[in-house]
């Protein structure tokens, strides 16, 4: 029985070899036929006056007629000859058109170079930043007219170029109007601005308003900061675009046919810049129609300022409206705890606590019911608003006040920070930690974003402004952000007990020395260290 099976297998193998050999021989024979057919077609076309340079390349219709595994007979030749001659005529016309396009493009390259030299010599930096870049200059009608003369076969002269300078500048003015309108439309269609119905206003009025700030999306997030502020006006954005993206059309990126808008309105999480700026203007109050330059002047004079007294905020003389909005937005969103509670409970925890029992219960710390969270930057009009606008002639010294720390308090903070138990430990506010303890687990895991700054002035500012208290040494806790390492522990099912060790190095050593068994994943592992509970990715060290 076994021998019959072996014979069947050997027979099947022989049949397979025969099929492979037959297929290979047939393919070789077809290849010989195709080469012979192609050589005869080339020979007959050469007799008609064509050369191989006239033949099209990478043309499917041509390959379909020439590369066939059939011998070339007179009947077949009479059938394909008119088709081949038609394809050759199309190829000749295409090459002639491409030659004209190449000549025009070469002439445009020269004209654009002269254009760049002309605006370099005749315009200041501010005016030059608003001129079309190299890509858009190629589309100016005056330059295209010169490039198209005599199908691009004439000789270019700089004198002829300078003679059309007046028309060229008129074309650049038309470009500027179009560029402003396109950018203004992007701003007007933003959700925070759309309700203001600014579409009917002139583009200049929209772009000179206090809401008109933009950012570039083409891998330029880090390099489009002007004077230390990441918010760009129309003039700053266009100057950046002209310098950093000279070969891309205004506002667009991507290959031809796949263009997309590469400019957007800045988002200052959790709100957009126009939303924050509108709230600040309404709270001041300042009319939205006020030009941005006027608002900038008020900020530099100290009449329009933030009352938070944050020690990292520049003095009024170094500020403008964009920097003020940026500072307010960044400090407003820096408190991730505030953002989490706002997003989860639908309201902000104020002092005194909100009357809703559920919200109050969530915001009370485990060890003290007096833990409060005050909005560091409130843009609600009234006494608690952080943005103030002083009348003309008023003393503006209050705009320069910043939080300070006395020597004794500074020494206590530095001593507490020096007691950091591990080089990787980060300082966290005790009250923020307590207020976030009763939020859902996914929110507790974001405690790593609640780290305190290292400057004593900023730590004292946080406690005074956000919690209404003075500094105590116990207000600084240390967290070791060990998410990557505790993920291995959770995966191995060993529990998180061994992470209770005084340092991550000891915990890692224990892991390496003991075998691990895979267990089902658990989402609510908690560790008790130093008398308090913490979510899985953290080790709390509460040293007194």
Summarize the structure in words.
With 544 residues, the protein is mainly alpha-helical. Among the domains are: 2-72; 407-541, no CATH class. 51% of the residues lie in helices and 7% in strands. It has helices at residues 2-47, 60-66, 74-122, 125-128, 134-137, 141-148, 158-163, 165-188, 191-194, 203-207, 234-244, 273-283, 292-301, 321-334, 336-345, 357-363, 407-418, 430-436, 441-444, 456-467, 483-492, 504-513, and strands at 215-216, 252-253, 260-261, 263-264, 267-268, 271-272, 304-306, 387-389, 425-429, 476-481, 527-529, 532-534, 538-541. The strands form six sheets. The chain has a three-stranded antiparallel sheet with strand order 9-10-13. Strands 1-4 form a two-stranded antiparallel sheet. The radius of gyration is 37 Å and the shape is flat. It starts with a helix and ends with a strand.
Low-confidence stretches: 334-367, 484-544
Sketch the major β-sheet: 3 strands, antiparallel
Portion in helices = 40-55%
Report the sheet-strand fraction: 5-15%
How many distinct helices?
22
Amino-to-carboxy terminus distance: 86 Å
Strand order of the largest sheet: 9-10-13
**Global morphology:** flat
| Class per helix and strand makeup | mainly alpha
Average predicted confidence as pLDDT? 77
Radius of gyration: 37 Å
The count of β-strands is 13
Protein name: N/A
């Amino acid at each position: 029985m076994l021998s019959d099976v072996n014979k069947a297998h050997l027979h099947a193998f022989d049949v397979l070899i025969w099929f492979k050999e037959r297929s290979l021989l047939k393919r070789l024979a077809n290849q010989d036929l195709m080469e012979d057919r192609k050589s005869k077609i080339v020979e007959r076309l050469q007799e008609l006056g064509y050369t191989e340079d006239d033949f099209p390349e990478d043309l499917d219709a041509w390959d379909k007629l020439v590369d066939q595994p059939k011998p070339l007979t007179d009947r077949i030749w009479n059938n394909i000859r008119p088709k081949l001659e038609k394809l050759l005529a199309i190829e000749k016309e295409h090459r002639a058109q491409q030659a004209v396009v190449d000549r025009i493009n070469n002439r445009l390259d020269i004209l654009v170079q002269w254009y760049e030299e002309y605006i370099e010599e005749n315009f200041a930096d501010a005016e030059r930043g608003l001129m079309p870049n190299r890509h858009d200059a190629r589309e100016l009608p005056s330059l295209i007219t010169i490039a198209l003369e005599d199908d691009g076969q004439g000789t270019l002269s700089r004198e002829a170029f300078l003679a059309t300078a007046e028309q060229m500048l008129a074309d650049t003015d038309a470009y500027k109007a179009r560029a402003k309108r396109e950018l203004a439309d992007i701003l007007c269609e933003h959700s925070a601005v759309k309700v203001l119905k600014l579409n009917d206003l002139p583009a200049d009025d929209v772009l000179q308003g206090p809401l008109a700030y933009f950012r570039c999306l083409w891998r330029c997030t880090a390099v489009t900061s002007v004077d230390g502020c990441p918010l760009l006006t129309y003039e700053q954005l266009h100057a950046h675009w002209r310098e950093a993206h000279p070969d891309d059309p205004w506002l667009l990126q991507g290959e031809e046919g796949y263009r997309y808008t590469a400019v957007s309105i800045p988002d200052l999480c959790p709100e957009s810049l126009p939303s924050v700026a509108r709230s600040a203007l309404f709270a001041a109050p300042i009319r939205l129609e006020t030009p941005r330059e006027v608002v900038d002047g008020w900020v530099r004079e100290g009449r329009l300022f933030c009352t938070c007294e944050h020690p990292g905020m520049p003095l009024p003389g170094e500020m403008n409206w964009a920097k003020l909005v940026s500072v307010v937005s960044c400090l407003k969103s820096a408190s991730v705890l505030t953002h989490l509670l706002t997003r989860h409970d639908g309201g902000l925890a104020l002092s005194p606590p909100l009357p809703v029992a559920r919200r109050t219960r969530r915001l009370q710390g485990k060890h003290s019911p007096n833990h409060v969270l005050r909005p560091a930057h409130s843009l609600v009009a009234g006494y608690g608003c952080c943005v103030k606008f002083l009348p003309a002639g008023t003393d503006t010294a209050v705009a320069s006040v910043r939080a300070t720390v006395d020597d004794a308090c500074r020494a206590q903070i530095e001593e507490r920070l020096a007691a950091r138990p591990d080089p990787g430990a980060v300082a966290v506010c005790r009250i923020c930690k307590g207020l976030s303890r009763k939020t859902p687990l996914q929110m507790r895991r974001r405690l790593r974003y609640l780290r305190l700054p290292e400057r004593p002035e900023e730590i004292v500012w946080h406690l005074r402004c956000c919690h209404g208290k003075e500094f105590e040494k116990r207000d600084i806790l240390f967290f070791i952000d060990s998410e990557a390492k505790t993920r291995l522990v959770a995966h191995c099912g060993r529990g998180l007990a061994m992470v209770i060790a005084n340092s991550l190095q000891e915990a890692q050593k224990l892991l390496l020395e003991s075998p691990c068994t895979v267990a089902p994943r658990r989402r609510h592992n908690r560790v008790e260290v130093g008398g308090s509970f913490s979510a899985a990715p953290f080790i709390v060290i509460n040293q007194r």
